[in-house]
Amino acid sequence: xxxxxxxxxxxxxxxxxxxxxxxxxxxxxxxxxxxxxxxxxxxxxxxxxxxxxxxxxxxxxxxxxxxxxxxxxxxxxxxxxxxxxxxxxxxxxxxxxxxxxxxxxxxxxxxxxxx
Length: 115
What we know:
4 helices, mainly alpha, about 120 residues
């Protein structure tokens, strides 16, 4: 673990050249961002949102789910039953996390409709 932390620390410039890129020149906190580079955009629609990783992560999750669901269910069931039941635990945790975000977004959407 210490090696990983040291490697990450060695990647951070010490000359003050470290900057955060964002599509907004100034955040709500007053921090000025380097706008020379735009964050990676969504390949599908050219979206330049501040939370682009949220959307990229959702798309990656969708792609991985589609790939897993395309596997032979009987073979996958055998794999999960024999020695890889940890995978079911990870899927359950991911589902709970996604459900919390979904519920929050649904409640926010419902509140917006009330006004």
